[in-house]
């Protein structure tokens, strides 16, 4: 995804039918680093990062023109009981605390 992929200031470009509770992985393909986040409405949360209302470092790199890949994992049928558990697992799996954008190891 490139900066021009989005419709502009805060306008979501998706259907709410896919706005589920889950975890998302934002992969900066240009820098080979990850950010892991969570949301009860995961698409709204993802959109916030690319419209300046989420992680500031992610937004800055997006505005700079870095290429991004987005992966979303629904909590339902994931094998985890809570979003926090799933997020902590993903942060560790993608090493996004050690080598990425995450500033914590996840919610407790």
Notes on the structure:
By secondary structure, the protein is of the alpha+beta class. It has one domain: 3-Layer(aba) Sandwich (GIY-YIG endonuclease), CATH 3.40.1440. Helix content is 27%, strand content 19%.
Unreliable stretches (pLDDT < 50, length at least 5) are 1-8
Q: Tell me the fraction of residues in β-strands, as a range.
A: 15-25%
Order of helices and strands: EEHHEH
- What structural category do the secondary elements indicate? alpha+beta
Integer tally of domains: 1
Radius of gyration: 13 Å
Shape: globular
Terminus-to-terminus distance: 31 Å
Count the beta strands.
Answer: 3
In helices, the fraction of residues equals 25-40%
Total helical segments:
3
Write the CATH fold name: GIY-YIG endonuclease
State mean pLDDT (0 to 100 scale). Answer: 88
- In spatial order, strands of the major sheet run 2-1-3
Q: What is the CATH H-level superfamily?
A: GIY-YIG endonuclease
What is the CATH architecture descriptor? 3-Layer(aba) Sandwich
CATH class: Alpha Beta
Main sheet summary = 3 strands, antiparallel
Descriptive labels:
GIY-YIG_endonuc, GIY-YIG domain-containing protein, 3 strands, 108 residues, GIY-YIG_endonuc_sf
Q: Topology of this structure?
A:
Blueprint: E1 22-28, E2 33-39, H1 42-49, H2 56-64, E3 68-74, H3 83-94
Antiparallel strand pairs: 1-2, 1-3
What would a concise description of this structure say?
It contains three helices and three strands.
